[in-house]
Write a structure and sequence with these properties.
Pfam families: Methyltransf_25. One of its GO terms (molecular function) is methyltransferase activity. This is Methyltransferase. Keywords: Methyltransferase, Transferase. This protein has 8 helices and 7 strands; from the N terminus they run H-H-H-E-H-E-H-E-E-H-E-H-H-E-E. By secondary structure, it is α/β, with parallel strands linked by helices. The chain has 2 domains: 36 residues, no CATH class; 167 residues, Vaccinia Virus protein VP39 (Rossmann fold), CATH 3.40.50. Strands 3-2-1-4-5-7-6 form a 7-stranded mixed beta sheet, with helices on both faces. The N and C termini lie far apart (48 Å). The mean pLDDT is 90.
Length: 243
């Protein structure tokens, strides 16, 4: 499906009936040939916005997968970048794809649960792309507290967030149908596979980040266009741990 090099329908079905960790282990070799990888059209504007905020010394890619966000960190960090993910398969693919580039910051790939990060406050920047649907709303305060704990004072946590699909639009019904299917699947099948697209809402997320202690600012990403009412299609959330 998706591309000749991508997973087959059967492979996707097996993944969907696995746990999140096992599912991504299975998908890892073909993940970059699916639409689940964050596209370069989003990564590039985020990278440009972060360059205006930086430079940074050390960066963390939360739920890094095969390393799309690691590429962004390499552009804005001077010393070292770290990717953390629960899936050993995704980490192996990312490590193999990245290789070693002269003059680039050193890179580490760490298998860990984002809800229990094995680091102290050593990062100047944390990013994440497309992973928040794997966390239930009740888990987000703990997740944000973990990110806060690994940032140095003045460190930033940044991620893009798209505007919600207009009610009644094809995108709205597609996301609603996907989330409904996942809820039915998780009610009937174990282990669960948590992936809900409609639970990560900007207003709620900003409130939770503020309660964690972050100073939250929003930046438009005009390269990604505007909605008919003039509002941006995508914003960059920049949450700063106070100095």
């Amino acid at each position: 499906m998706f591309a000749p090099q991508g997973p087959t329908f059967r492979e996707l079905a097996v993944q969907a009936l696995s746990s999140v960790e096992r599912g991504y282990d299975l998908l890892a070799p073909k993940f970059d040939h699916t639409p689940f990888r964050t596209p370069d059209a989003i990564l590039a504007p985020v990278s440009r916005a972060l360059r205006r905020l930086g430079p940074f010394d050390s960066g963390l890619d939360l739920c890094c997968g095969t390393g799309a966000g690691m590429d962004v960190l390499r552009e804005v960090c001077r010393e070292r970048v770290t990717g953390v993910d629960l899936s050993a398969g995704m980490l192996a693919e990312g490590r193999a794809r990245a290789g070693v580039t002269a003059g680039a910051p050193s890179a580490a790939w760490v298998r860990a649960d984002a809800r229990a990060l094995p680091f102290g406050p050593v990062f100047d920047l944390a990013v994440s792309f497309g992973a928040f649907g794997h966390f239930l709303p009740r888990e987000r305060p703990g997740l944000f507290a973990q990110v806060y704990s690994v940032l140095r004072p003045g460190g930033r946590f940044a991620f893009p967030i798209g505007a919600p699909a207009r009610p009644g639009s094809p995108g709205y019904w597609a996301l609603l149908g996907f989330d409904a299917a996942m809820r039915v699947r998780n009610a009937l099948w174990r282990p669960r596979f948590v992936m809900y697209y409609r639970t990560f809402r900007l207003t709620n997320v900003c409130t939770e980040l503020t309660r964690t202690g972050f100073d939250v600012r929003l930046q438009d990403l005009p390269e990604l266009g505007r909605r008919p009412d003039g509002s941006p299609r995508c914003r960059l959330v920049v949450a700063t741990r106070p100095a």
